[in-house]
Amino acid sequence: MDTRNLILSRMQRLMCLGLEGQPGGDLIEGTATIWVERLHTFEPSRLNAAFDSVEASATRWPTPGYIIDCIPPYQRPISTVLGNGSLPVECEPSPEARERVRALIAPLAEKLGVKL
Fold first, then answer.
1. Of 52, 72, 77, nearest to 62 (Cα)?
2. Beta bridge partners of 60
3. Per the domain annotation, does 103 fall within a domain?
4. Most buried among 44, 56, 103, 115, using CB within 10 Å?
5. Residue 34 CB contacts under 8 Å (≥ 6 apart), including other chains
6. Domain count, the chain
7. What letter would DSSP give residue 23?
8. Distance (Å, rounded) from C-alpha 10 to C-alpha 49?
9. Torsion angle of C-alpha atoms 75, 78, 79, 83, degrees rounded to 10
């Protein structure tokens, strides 16, 4: 489902809840246009999670800003973090890696007066 249809579908679900302050039938088309304009750039899975959260707790008709506040933070896929998509076998850095890092930060630590 594309983002526009997701937003419209979730708005229909909110209408079924009969929330206080929901737009009347004469305003829903304009309301939908504004919501699509404000929310269309968000990733559908995150937007869907935000609507799930709103549906579970809303007692009043939400604003697009409230939906945005409920969008969970972006989680980078592990494949983009590690490059090749594989998980590291060992999470503890090797002694050589520790020494390389220490050598890189030692000059900065010295300038800041921090003892390593």
1. 52
2. 20
3. no
4. 44
5. 64
6. 1
7. P
8. 11
9. 110
